Amino acid sequence: MRFSLLCLILFSTIFCACNSSDSNHKKQQVFRYNESKGISSLDPAFARNLPLIWPVHQIFNGLVQLDDSLKVRPCIAKKWEVSNDGKVFTFLLRSDVYFHCSEVFPDSIGRKVIASDFVYSFNRILNPEIASPGAWVLSSLEKDRVGTHNGCMALNDSVFQVYLKKPFPAFLGMLTMPYCYVIPHEAIEFYGREFRNHPVGTGPFFFKYWKEGEKLILRRNSKYFEKDSKGVRFPYLESISISFIADKQSEFLEFIKGNIDFISGVNPASKDELLTRNGNLNPRYLNKIKMITGPYLNTEYLGILIDGSNQSFKSNPLLLNKVRKAIGYGIDRSKMMMYLRSNIGYPAFNGFIPNGMPDFKNATKGFCYNPELSQELLKEVGYSTSKTLPLLSLATTDDYVDICEFIQHQLNNLGFDIKVDVYPGAAYREMLANSKLKFFRASWVADYADPENYLALFNSVNFSPSGPNYTHFKSEIYNNLYANSLSEISQQKRLKLYKEMDSIIIDNAVVIPLYYDKVIRFIQNDVEGMECNPMNLLILKNVKKQIVQ
User: How far from the centroid of its chain's Cα atoms is residue 526's Cα?
Assistant: First the structure.
């Protein structure tokens, strides 16, 4: 027995030695990141925020996808056509896309994706019993069209078609969202609600292991259908390992020690350690880590309720356009970004639509810092440094107190009388949705990469609480432009309409843009191929790590 055990140990040692090169290669191709907020589900039907979207994006695919420039590119659909009236989308599917090998299939072998899988996946999102937060993405489908399933149909295994109630050019971009990823009906029938922790997709990585709150492991899908320009099959990594350290400072220390390959964003506790005041990487880390930055589709702004029908707001000076513009010109955004955000963001000198939106750069002239003009506007409506405006309350949450106090200080020097009210997140959101805040700090992060996603906030049919028009801005001219943009097939003409709407918002000073956010990523020096994009998607299929001999 001892002799047998000795032989086994000797054989194992020799075997491991012979394969040490391959083992080291595989170990080095493990990409590690931490999700401090935790992950509640790997079901794309519930991928409503980045902590959920990031792992789901590795496991699943949709008809189309976004590249790092936010252009819509083919994915499972190799090409598509849009009817002349803009209401029918026809997708021709690839024939080499397979679901991951799983016990839900005969012999545990994955099967080919066909058009009826998209019919099933879309209808699942629309099923009220599922209660997917993404049902709104498919709200434009002509659900009662004869011969379809809620506006979807498979003409054959290779052709998938959807019908819209009316033209909606942003629809194609919305199909890149995780809610629209394809899933196999066999997995839902087999796992039921447990599909959340037994995902079966088509993506570059497949699900391997998950102990909630501790570790999530995804492995390389060797049969993945996408290849690089040299014909090498994606992904390059062998696996993805996700940890769940809740404390951001502990996460940062693990990154500095080299135990995590990537962190996103900058925690206030580590900001001064990582960045200079100008927002550059601290020189002491130049030979250890890399910093990648770029625009993020998020606009931080001050919102103003301009609904004069509310009797309690009748004497509100914020109902005066010149007072609102005085606020816009009274804020030094460049100084605010440098001293409070280490330039992690771009001062908002343009409209509401942020930097990074495809084909939409510097479209609208916004507010620059001009205190003299600010005071002149106040004088024109009867206010001056000797006669201050009535007390105005600026509502915010804990995360933005420093920004709001900076604004308070600057505006009070110009004749305003502003106090900052800090609310818990839940209370703030409830008051905002129910039009209880006259003056508030807010942000809008794009759900999809089309300016329409920002401009819809000011359509009067979206008045809160039933929609996101928290300012209660109402303009027939604006509404007509918005309606025209939805039916305009030409991208060039539609962009012109978008720019006109953005200008109307700034001219009416309905919102005061403060800054456009920035994606900032820190990666270990041995990580290659990672980029950032304005949606802050985590794309790992083309990432690799340098091989250390």
Answer: 26
Sign of CA dihedral 177, 167, 460, 498: positive
In a domain, 523, yes or no: no
In a domain, 394, yes or no: yes
Judgement on whether residues 355 and 491 belong to the same structural domain of the protein: yes
Residue 379 sits in a domain whose CATH number is 3.10.105.10
Instruction: Indicate whether 520 pLDDT > 80.
Output: yes
Tokens, residue 66: 């976004």
Q: Are 532 and 68 in contact (CB under 8 A)?
A: yes
Cis omega before residue 169 (within 30°)? no
Residues 236 and 303 in one domain: no
Residue 182 belongs to a domain = yes
Domain that holds residue 466: 296-518
Split at pLDDT 50, 70, 90, the class of 388 is: low
pLDDT band at 16 (very low <50, low <70, confident <90, very high): very low
- More confidently predicted of 135 and 15: 135
CATH label of the domain that carries residue 55: 3.90.76.10
- Neighbouring residues of 294: CB distance < 8 A, sequence distance ≥ 6: 356, 518, 519, 531, 532, 533, 534
Q: Which of 274, 268, 276, 337 is nearest to 517 (CA)?
A: 337
Q: State which amino acid sits at residue 80.
A: W
**Residue whose C-alpha is closest to residue 223's, from 209, 208, 203, 240:** 203
Average pLDDT over residues 335-347: 93
Q: Looking at the structure, do residues 234 and 360 belong to the same domain, yes or no?
A: no
pTM: 0.89
